[in-house]
Amino acid sequence: MTLDETDCRILNHLQDGFPIAPHPYRMVAEELGLAESDLLDRLARMKESRVITRFGPFFDAAAIGGAFCLCAMAVPEDRFETVMTKVNAHPEVAHNYERTHRLNMWFVLATETREEIDQVAEAIELETGLKVLCFPKLQEFFIGFRVAA
Amino acid sequence: MTIDATDRRIIAATQAGLPLVSEPYARIAAELGLTEAALCDRLRAMQDSGVIRRIAVAPNHYKLGMTANGMSVWDVADDRVAELGQMVGNLDGVTHCYERPRALPDWPYNLFAMLHGGSREDVEAQRVGIAALLGDACRGHDILYSTRILKKTGLRLRSQKG
User: Boundaries of each Siroheme decarboxylase NirL-like HTH domain copy (chain B) (predicted)?
Assistant: First the structure.
């Protein structure tokens, strides 16, 4: 779908937050100078066409009982496929990407506790004989994404 | 940041997103057998305590034509990382920005910024822009492009304890 200027304004506005109130869409629509029904229609269309991945509360993983950790390995080229199979076999591996660097395999571990992160990383080290570097998030800076309106 | 069983039910009911109806909280409250006011109080409390980071829209970069991305990584002084990270995180095209530990000697970088653009050239231009912005505060940097997705599964709420 093509986005018009109003769609872009909606996307930018709703990345900053959404009210907790009985008629939140009406409040946002008023701030944007739109009718509530127009805002709802546009959101439905953007969700339908997957321009919007998700709209709602974003929960802190640690607060709801989970741990995440970005990990990286330097995998020799000739062993890459074998190591990938071993790494991906762990259900705790949520994402895994090949990247352009000596550290060429980057994956995210998702577990219920911080201790399990260490256990899975150690298991992968034992299975592959390769070092797993762990890069847990220490601080997050505001995440935003502006759409040119 | 402790949450109880009712909070967990609220998390489960809103994880897929808010309904696109005039009174979305009343709709969710009805599904959970709560009053709208009670639901809103709990949402506010979770937002205040940081359990809810924000209520917002997540756009799909690919659908918006931002098909190139690179993980840029920077070695900046620890005592300036908070200030510089916020500055980098606020830039257009930066979707995620985190401080992470170094892993010396393999990995000297402590600031990670995911860059998105319409092309590899756009992303390279952003990298040059950030390097100029950081100036002497940056001791070194690199950028890692993804060449292949090896696995991608949704991040799920795993534990239902509480």
Answer: 7-53
